[in-house]
Design goal:
The chain has 166 residues and is an alpha+beta fold. It contains three helices and eight strands, in the order βαββββαβββα. It has a single domain, classed as Roll (2,3-Dihydroxybiphenyl 1,2-Dioxygenase, domain 1), CATH 3.10.180.10.
Length: 166
Amino acid sequence: MKRFHVHVAVDDLAQSVRFYSTLFATEPTVLKPDYAKWMLEDPRVNFAISTGAGHGTGISHLGIQAEDEGELAEVYDRLARAERPVVEEGATICCYAQSDKQWIADPQGVAWETFFTYGEATVYNCSGVLNTLAEVSSGLATCGCGPAEIANPEQQPAMASACCAD
């Protein structure tokens, strides 16, 4: 079963962790100096906050997290039919996780991340894919990204040319 994803950029992580922990009646599943994530079951949401998003504060992006590669293929098929530019990020490291990702923007420019997470990483490593998505949606440029340290080095993913991260 897929999970809805919301990522919010915050200016004070500790204050936001206290607030959302109270709101959700649970502590974060992942807590780092610049990032926190709650994997909620009711409602079924992957809710993340971070200080390093570089996009000001507020909603950074929305998403759909697949539970396996089959679900991800199904979501990718729907993106292909949406008649909007898709940024193929592929295997990447972001938000302390190893994932396969594609991105799309809705007609109003709201960024949607679609992904399947298959491992942990030791770094946040999120860079400019949201900027790339905005540029691609406008018919503009590209960017690149470099490798990052991951928890299991033999599983180092090939970085996509479209950019890293969220």
